[in-house]
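Honest question from a wet-lab person: if I give you the sequences of every part of a complex, can you actually get the arrangement of the whole thing, not just the pieces? Trying it with mine:
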Amino acid sequence: MSSSVLPVQGTMFHSPPVRAEEVVRVVAGQSAAPVLELSGIGKRFQGIVALRDVGFAVRPGEVMALLGENGAGKSTLVKILTGIHQPDEGTIALDGKPVSFATPQAAMQAGITAVHQETVMFEELTVAENICIGRQPLCGIPPRIDWRRIEAEAEQLFARLEVDLPVRARVKDLSVAQRHFVEIARALSQRAQVVIMDEPTAALSQREIRELYRIIGQLRAAGTAVIFISHKFDEIFAVADRYTVLRDGRFIAAGALADITESQLVALMVGREVGQVFPRHLEQSNDRQASMPEANDAILEVENFCHPTEFHDVSFSLRRGEIIGFYGLVGAGRSELMQALFGLSPAARGKVRIDGRTISIQSPAQAIAHGIAYVPEDRQHQGVLLSLPIFQNITLPILSGIGFFLRRHRRREIAIARRLSEQLELKAAHFHQHVAQLSGGNQQKVVLAKWLATNPRVIILDEPTKGIDIGSKAAVHRFISDLVEQGLSVILVSSELPEVMGMADRIIVMHQGTVQRVFDRDEATPELLVAAASGSGHQHEDQDQDQDKTGAVPCH
Amino acid sequence: MSLNQNSGPAPGPGPGRPPLFSRLSGLASRPREPLLAVLIAALILLVGLRAPAFLTMRSMDNLLTDSALPVMLALTQMLVIVTRGIDLSVASNLALSGMMSALLAMHFPQLPIGLVIACALCIGLALGLINGWLIGYLSLPPIVVTLGSMSVYRGLVFVLSGGAWVSSRNMPADFIAFPLGRLMGLTHLVWLAALAIVVLWFVARHTRFGRDLYAIGNDPVAAGYVGIASPQRLFWTYGLSGAMAGLCGYLWVARYAVAYTEIAYGFELTVIAACVIGGISIAGGVGNISGAVLGALFLAVINNALPMVQISPFWQSALTGLVILSAVIINARGEKKRNKQILPLHFHTELRATAAPVTRTPA
Amino acid sequence: MNIMADTAPVKTARYDIGERGSFRIADLLRQWEFLLGLLLVAVFCINCLLLPHFLDFYNLADSTFNFSEKALIALPMALLIICREIDISVSAVIALSSVAMGVANHYGVPAVGLFVVGIGTGTLCGLLNGLLVTRFALPSIVVTIGSMSLFRGLASVVLGDQAFTNYPELLSDWGQGYFFDVLPRPFAVLIVAALAFAALLHCTAWGRRIYAIGNNPVAARFSGIAVDRYRLMLFVLTGAMAGLAGCLLTGRIGSTRPNIALGWELEIITVVILGGVSIAGGAGTIGGVLLAVLTLGMVTYGLALANIPGIIMTIVVGALLLTTIAVPRLLRGKATR
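Yes, you can. This is the full assembly:
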C-alpha cells in the first residue's frame, strides 16, 4: 500500500507550504503555439477559494493530463472552461486571443467541449440528431432540416472514429461507452479545438478503453487538443503527453510525462512523502482478531443474491466489527447490490441471514428494523431532503419511535439531533436551518446522523467521500473507525483504491454484476484489484455485454 | 454507481405483475401509431357490422368533419405537452375568440370573412402569448398558469357578451357558411384540418423550432446548455396553441351558429385525452403528429359510433374514460419510468453533466 | 466542512447549534399565510365599506354554504398536491356518489345508510385512482382525467336525463341545516375536518412523512417511508372526502342532476394553490388553504350581494392566481433556469 493518495492524519487542516523546488514551471516547448492558455485564474464561491492563480497551456494535437485529488479544483476549472462559471480573476486565451464565455453555448461555439462521466444527451432523440442539436443544417425552400446531410455527417464521423454505431438509434438504448462516443462525435462535429474528457473511462471495459485511446489518437492527429482528467495512472501514462497538477486550488506543476514517474506525480498531488498511516482501528482490530478469533461470527450473510438485470450470484458474509470494502468500476453493480440488500429492489432474489436467522427484506423500513442502514452515494437526490430542517432530516427514519404526535415530543427530537450532531461535529446555525444551506460536507454529516439515529448494526456506506474535499475525507475515515469501535459492522463501497485498501479488512471486487475475487487485507495490491475490477481475471473480453443485458442469467 | 440518479434502482411498480402485463408491455414497445390506426379501422368496421349506415359516405364525411376541430387542437396541444407543459386554457381561449369573432361579424357584417377569421386567429394568438410569456420568460408552472388564464378567459366571454347569446340570426350568412362549405367534396373544416396536419408535421419534424421543443422536453437544462433559447421557444409554442384555439373558436361558433359563454366547456380535457391516447407522454420529449391525429380520431369515432349502435350517448363519457385509462396504462408500460407529474419546467435537477460534484457551498 | 480548511486546526471543535433561528419580523411578513391573512382582512373591510348588508351575521353564516363542500375537498387535495400528485376527478366522484345515493334512496335505504353509500362510493373511486397511480406507476394527472370521464360517464348512464329527488330529511338537515339555529352544519363539518387535517399534517408523524415525500420522494423512500402506501391512502382519503362533500351537496340542493358539481375540480385546485401549496410539492399549510377558502368565499359572497353575476368570480379567481404566482417572480427577477 505504498502509493496512497490520502493525506496523513493531522495535516489536512494545513496546506503544507509550497516549497520552491516543487514548483516546476512549464518549459517553453518547441512545438506550435498553444491553442488554449490560462493564466492567473481565480474563483471563489461565497468566500471559499476554489481556484487560486491557476495557469497552464495546451498545444494543438497534444493530450494533457489534468491531475489532482478530489477537491483540488479540477471540476471547477472544467466548469470555467465550458462556460458554466466565470472566473473571478485571470484570463483565458484561445489561439492567442483573449476570450470569455458568458454561457456554455459561447464556450461551445468558441470550440471548447467537454465529455463528462454522465453524458448530456437527449434520450429520445436519435444519435444523429444529438450530434447536431441546436444547429441543424437547413436546406431547400421552405427551409427545412437537412436530415440526409445530418445522417451522412454522423456516419462519416463514426467512420472516421472507426466506431460502429447506427445513427438512427435512440440514445436511450445506448450503453455508456456508446454515449461517450456520441459525445466525442459531437465535439468533432463542432470542430472543437479543445476537448475536455472528465474521467471518461470510469464505466468502460478494457476493450472500450482501447477504442477510446484510439479515438484520442485520432483527435490528436486532427490537431485537436485534449485535456484528460483521470485518476488512473496507467491510462495517463498510456495516452497523455504532458501533465498539469493542481492541489488545493493551486497550480503546482506541469511538464512532460516522459520526464516524471508515477510516485513523483503522486507526491506532487499530495504534497508530502508517500506513506500512509491509516486509522488506528485497524491495528486495534488486528489485535482484536488475534486475541479473539472465535468471536468473529457473521452478522450478515448473503447467499446467491441476484437481480434480473443488475447483478447475479453474489454471496458474501460480514463479520462483527469488520469492514468489507466493495471495489469495482462504475457500472459493476455494487450500488445496485446494496440497494437491493436494503430492500429497494423488489425484483431481487436470494437468501439473507442476520445473526444466523434467515430474513426477508422487502422494503427499506424492514431493513431498518433489522438493523441495516444504507447511506446512499447520491447525497443530493437520495440522501437529504433539502428543504426540510436539519432535525427533521435526522429523525426521519425513526419517527415511529418518537411518537405519533410529534409536536409533543419536539424536545426529544431536538435532543436526538443534538446528540448526533455533536458526535459528528456538524456545523450549522440552528436545527431549524434547511439542509440546503449547509456545505456538502455538513450535508453528508446530516445523512450520517440520520442513519446513526436508527441504531444500526450494519451500516452500508456508498462512496461516502465522493465529492468531499480532502479535509473532510479523513474525518469521514476516522468516523468509520469510530463506528467499528462502537460495535457496528461496515460495508464500504468505494471506487478509490487507497481508501478501500486502507480501510477494509476484506475487499470484494465486482465486475459487471458478479463477484470477481475476494481479497484479504494483506494480499491486496493495487494491480490485483484493478485487474479484477476490469474483469481481466476472467476471460470476459469477448463478451462485452451492455449493462442492460446482463439479464441473460436467470434470477429466481 | 447507479446511473439512474433520479429514480434509484430498478423501478418496479409492484411485487407481482399479472401475465396480461407482459403482453401489454410487448404491445407497448412496438410503435404505437400503426397499432392505433388498426384499432380505429377495426372499430369502424365493427360498428359498421352492427349498423351498416355507419359505413356510408355520408357518415364518414360526418365523422371527418366532426373530428376536424379536436384534431387541430390536439396538434398544438401535442407540441405543448412535448415541452413538458400543458395548456388547460385552450377551451376558454376558443370560447373567447369565437365570441369575439361572432360579435365582430354581428356588428360589422360587411367585413370579409377572411378578415374575421384572421381576427379570431390573432386574438387567440395574443391570448396564447400571454400564457407563453408567463411560462417561458417568468418560468411559472404551466399547469397553474393555464389554470388561471382558463378562468380569466372564460369570465371574459361573459363580460364581453353580457351573458347574451349570439345566435344564427345575428350572424352574417357567409360567416356561418364557411366551415361547412364544400371544396372537392369535403368540407372546409376537413381541408383546414388537413392543412394544419401538414403544417404542424413540418414544424415538428423539419424545423429547428420543432426539434428544439423535443430537446426542451427531454432535458430542459441540457437544452439551455446546447444553446436552445427555451424562453423564446416556449413563448411561441403557447402562442401557437392559442392561435389554433382562436381559429377553432371561429370555426366552432360558425359551424354550430351560436356563441355563448359555456361553449366548449371542458373541451381542454378531451384534447389532452386525445394526446394521451395518441401516445404522447405527459412527461414530455416524446410524441408524434400522427399520434395526436389518431388519438383525436379515435375519440371522434367513439362519439360518432355510439348513436349508430344505439348505445345511449350517456355511455360516451364512460367509454372515453376507459379508453384514456387503458391508453395510459399501455403508454406507461412502454416507456422508461421518468418524472410522472407535469412539473414546472424550472424544477429540474442539477445538470447531470457537470463533472464530479464539487463540495456544495451554502446557497 | 470547507470552513475547516481555512481556520485554525481544532480537531475536536464543537459547534454550538441553537435550537431555532432568531425570530424576525421580516420572515413573518414574507410568509404566504400572513399575506393571505392581510388579503382576507382587506377583502373583509372593502366588503364592509361597499356593501350595506355584508356585516349581517346571519348573512355571513349563510355565505359559508357556498364554499363548505368545496373546502372539504380542498383539504385532502392540499395533501395530495404537497405529495406531488393531483386529482382532477373529484367533481366526478361527487357526481357518482350523489347518483349512488339517489339509487340507494330509490331502493329504500334508510337515511343514515345514504351517508354510508355516498362516502363509500367516494372511497372506492379514490381507491381506483390510488391503485392505478401506485401499482402501475402512472402519472396522476392523466389517470384522474381518465377516471373523471369514467365516473361522470357512469353517473350519467345511471341518471339518464332525469334527476333524483325526494331525499330524506336527514340529508337536507345536514346539507342546509344549522347547529343551534345559527351555525350552518356543513361549515361545522368543515371546521372539524380542517382541525383534524391540520393536526394530521402539522403535528403528527404522518404529516411529517407527507412533507418528506413531497420534498424528495426518492430520499423519502430511501429513508424507509412507504411512499406508495401514503399516496394510496391520500387518494382514498380524497375520494372519501369527495363522497362526504357529495352527501352534503346533495342534501343542500335536494336533488341529483347530471351537471352536479361541474367544474369544481379546477376551482378546488385553484383555491389550494392560492392557499400557498406549491404545485411542485413539499410546501403548504392547512391554515393557508383555509384562509384562501375564506377569502374567496367572502369575495363570492360580496359579489353576490352586489348582484354581480357569479361568472365574474372566475375572472377574479383566475386573475388572483396569476398575480400571486407572477408577482413574486417578477420582484425577485427572472428565475435562474
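Two things worth pointing out. The first strand of chain A starts at residue 36 and ends at 45. Residues 1-30, 273-277, 287-295, 538-551 of chain A have pLDDT under 50 and may be disordered.
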